[in-house]
Amino acid sequence: MSLISASLARVKPSPTIAISSKAKELAAAGRDIIALSAGEPDFDTPENIRNAAKAAVDAGKTRYTAPDGIPELKQAICDKFQRENGLSYIPAQVTVSTGGKQVLYNAFMATLDAGDEVVIPAPYWVSYPDMVLLAGGTPVIVECPMESGFKLTPEALEAAITPKTKWLIFNSPSNPTGAGYTRQELKGLTDVLMRHPQVHIMTDDMYEHLSYEGFTFCTPAEVEPGLYDRTLTCNGVSKAYAMTGWRIGYAAGPETLISAMRKVQSQSTSCPCSVSQWAAIEALNGPQDYIHNSLEVFQRRRDMVVEMLNDCPGITCPTPDGAFYVYPSIQGCIEKTSAAGTKITDDEVFATALLEETGVAVVFGAAFGLSPNFRVSYAEADDVLREACLRIKRFCNALN
Question: Where is the Aminotransferase class I/classII large domain (predicted)?
């Protein structure tokens, strides 16, 4: 009898966390490492949010709360959805979890049975398929190549849906590509979904507020009200407000689903951190200047990184619509040999050689389900990003 469950044996560790950990180990050993592998803003959490947390501690708001969030935060989330997305929810339709990842995990654990399928467009966030597998479901991966803007087409979605399909997970702007769906593109997908009433939609809107000039964010239930009762709209405060370590994610959807997710959470982690919940209320209800200011910085960094990577031999880097990632192709580097003698057979070999030979840590494309690419997070200081891109260029120049 094996000690480790068969369910866990289907799952692999997060590649992004593994690469970030390796970069930290190398740095601790004295190597000059630039880590562009983690999706984490380099800004401090805004002062008003930090002050709200301090006030909560001073007021003794440090005890257990309701399993999936305090009423005040749930109301703030309802107000946010109404104000920014035109979606009307009541607090009973809202759940709050320890980060956005737990929201998605709870939903899958609450709904998936053996044989249930989840359509996942690739490139995808690394955790999607493994969460589905851990919950007993079957990931159905649909490749969305660079030629399609890394976006799912209505035709590809239609072809992926079967009688066993229970969920489509939808992420815009995307991690890892930064690709965003226009309202018209999203309407094409929702038209398909309206023809398949057994399919529910899980939207990962974590990068909603990181949408650049020329792109306007929208979410499926906003575009097609007919999908309201089949949609779990997921979001959080981690990326928009530089609150990654505070661990607050949230979602709104049908009461029956939210109740089932609450049951999962009540028997796993129980409530999110009480102090973080009060900080999240201030994030959602307080001044929003921080979002505008940080967006200007990220857009400047995006433009610099795209320009510099496109200047690297063998690399093609599209310009993303949002988030803080680029997902360049290394097709022109395949089968070449690095200065240290490593033959670049795929993007994992490329990323490993890049780290070992230049000290730049990126995440290889196979981790996100589409190769040959790699992901760069440009949530770093300008001078750090510039130096990283120069090292990548030197690495590419040396390939032969």
Answer: 32-391
Q: How many domains is the chain partitioned into structurally?
A: 2
In a domain, 49, yes or no: no
Residue of 127, 132, 96 lying closest to 113 (CA atoms): 132
Q: Residues 108, 168, 323, CA angle at the centre, nearest 5°? A: 95
**Mean of pLDDT values over 111-136:** 96
CATH number, position 20 = 3.90.1150.10
Q: If you ran DSSP here, which 8-state letter would residue 98 be given?
A: S
Q: Are 358 and 390 in contact (CB under 8 A)?
A: no
Q: Could you tell me how far CA 132 lies from the centroid of its own chain?
A: 15
Neighbours of 9 (CB within 10 A): 10
Contact, 308 vs 223, CB < 8 A? no
Per-residue model confidence as pLDDT tens digits over 234-262: 999 999 999 999 999 999 999 999 999 99
Instruction: Show which of 285, 318, 343 is a domain's final residue.
Output: 285
Handedness of CA 76, 81, 83, 86 (dihedral sign): negative
The answer to whether 171 touches 204, Cβ cutoff 8 Å, is yes
pLDDT tens column, 62-106: 999 999 999 999 999 999 999 999 999 999 999 999 999 999 999
CA distance 232 to 244: 22
Length of the chain: 400
CA distances (Å), 150 to each of 89, 177, 249, 331, 333, in order?
31, 7, 25, 16, 20
Backbone angles phi and psi of 29, in degrees to 5: -85, 0
Residue 392's domain comprises 6-44+290-397
Q: What is the pTM of this model?
A: 0.95
Q: Are residues 78 and 159 in the same domain?
A: yes
